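Chain particulars:
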Amino acid sequence: MSKGVRIILILTLIIVVVATWCTKTFNEKVMEKNKQSLRIITANIEYRNKNKNFSDEVLKYSPDVLILLEWTGDNFNEKEFIKNGYEIIVDAPQQSTIINPKQGAHGVGLFVKKNIALNGERIVSPINGPYKMPYGVARLNVNDKNITIIAIHAPPPISRWTTKPTIDYVLSKIDRGKLKFDWSVGKQGDDVILAGDFNIISLDPYLRKMKGFGLYDTYSRVNFMPGPTWAYKPWLPKLFRLDYIFSTIDSKTENSHILKIEGSDHNAVISDIRI
């Protein structure tokens, strides 16, 4: 075996070991939650995924808010959530069709515990281009504070004219972590939480601009190691983070971890936030 081949094999082994270590998830145990904090899970469950085990996994964590992206109505057991005291305040699953086989990627759902849910709606993105994705917007009342949660699924970076503009459109409505004016079901002055699949890797300088809008990445606030959430195929190690939960700068993140989603090319992000 030549020296060059040995070097390639060693480097490949190192990459596999590092990838496996970095993509460890937190599914092994259920973390405790402070009663005063808001637990949010954002999950791109992949529209072709037929594995519904994630529904049971999520219920163990008892999130206050669950954001589902690429929800088709067939890849998640929503009935169990309704039985357990949740309201689907953004109810917009999408089924793929022969004409549009990727239509399922446009599905969005927001499941919220009934005691904090106010209202919600699906918003059509004004950004034209391939893979035009909708937003999900929900308004909550938590500890006597009004919060607007915006679920975002930015289009993949096929064109630079769609991915970041889809995010910029939402940011234009935020100042110092609050809504600048009434928008959708949100009201001026509401604290804002922005979460979902941004289709932007964590090393992209673009994400630094969030601080200018009074938002911070909850996972990075309490974790030193990277939290990869995406791979090209579900069976490959997750190497890049595309999924985030951004909260108002005045809030405190108490916990944040990565959760595995069986059958999806994404992992989920879970964060406990004290606002």
